[in-house]
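Re-run requested by the PI after the first attempt was lost when the workstation crashed. Everything re-entered from the original request form. Ligand of interest: uracil.
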Amino acid sequence: MRLNKYIAQAGIASRRKADELTLQGRVKINGVVMKEPGYDVTEKDVVEVNGHTVKQDAKKVYIMLNKPKGYITSADDEKDRPTVMELVTDIEERLFTIGRLDYNTSGMLLMTNDGDLAYKLSHPKHHIYKTYRARISGQISGERLAKLRNGVDIGGFVTSKAIVNVVKQVERSAIVEIQIFEGRNRQVRKMFAAVGNKVMDLDRIAIGDLYLGHLKQGHYRKLTQKEIEYLKNC
Ligand code: URA
């Protein structure tokens, strides 16, 4: 099995991260540093990452977190801001996130030690749709809605078709639900900016068919077997 897959399957890191660790010289095979991410691991090989032997039977954990605003989607932050990892307190396994949410975005974040699933779902070819509820400033006209639905240029990238519905429009702000199929950096904020509206609050309420439901902000729960199967079949 390819080295990055072997490390990912053991729940140590995503495949991409495994490649980075390998290139940094932090991976050893049978006691010798291995810097070739394409190395084919055999049954007899002993693989070490950062001095720890990699075991293949790590229990797989899948959780859904309702991230509050003001948390960074990362294991550590150079500015010492709170991280989402600090919210997950009673899980022993080392988890990493499937995709990210901005510091100021709240809502659904999936976390797992299943490197293979994380890799698959983060890959651009996997068009799993994500649903956001945005509170935006100003009025949202029919013309702007049509632009958002058909695709807008967010700086060198034109978004694909999106599902966009106004939940509520009051005088100076609106609540809009938007479903997108890509996950570019700050995509929803940039899409609204492209049509002239500023996003004041952004909340991810669903990933594919998985909904936050009544999960409170700052809380998390394990995914059900059915939800895990759904993600694996996406
Ligand atoms: N789009 C954004 O602008 N921010 C997020 O966190 C997610 C999607």
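Saved to the shared folder this time. The chain has six helices and 13 strands.
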